[in-house]
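It is worth pausing here to work through a concrete case rather than discussing structure prediction in the abstract. The textbook approach is simple: state the sequence, then state the predicted structure, then interpret. We follow exactly that order.
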Amino acid sequence: MTAFRPLLLAALALAALARAQAPVPAPPRNAASSAAGASLPDGKPFTRITADMLNFDYGTNRVAIFEGNVVAVDPQLTLWCRKMVVFFSEKGSEVARIEATQDVKMKQVNKEAFGDKAVYTRATANIVLTGNRPRLLDENGNWIVSRGEGILYNVNTKIMRVDKPEMEVQSSEGGALAPKP
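Step two, the predicted structure:
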């Protein structure tokens, strides 16, 4: 079950971004490098998103587009990409979908996920990681999925599916199996 943790962490990160539904004050400058675990004065955790540019259309298209050096730091995970689009529901300010594209990397502690695109859809609770060689790396630096066409993870059911996986497995010390890149 620990083999699925990196994807779970990625799922938690995108889900956490989805729950960030209202603008929050920026933390003090000295907290910028470590927003993980931070909270607002009322005790609620927040997600800090930085980028080179933000285009926000809350009227017609109901989207927020972060572009250039996007970094989203959540108490549970950090997400890096070149572009992130947040789609809001037709009614209210709820997040319906989040798309992170171009050099996507998600990390929690020492677990990492990589791909060209990551999409979180709130209605289905699915995160889909796709693109050129989406892959997962565990806390020991072992590839959990070293090649595949797409990785789907459901946040609610904790079920992962990998389309067309390719893995080379070798025995490591202690007899555990670890993927080989």
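Step three, interpretation. Confidence is low (pLDDT under 50) at residues 1-35. DSSP finds one helix and 13 strands in the chain.
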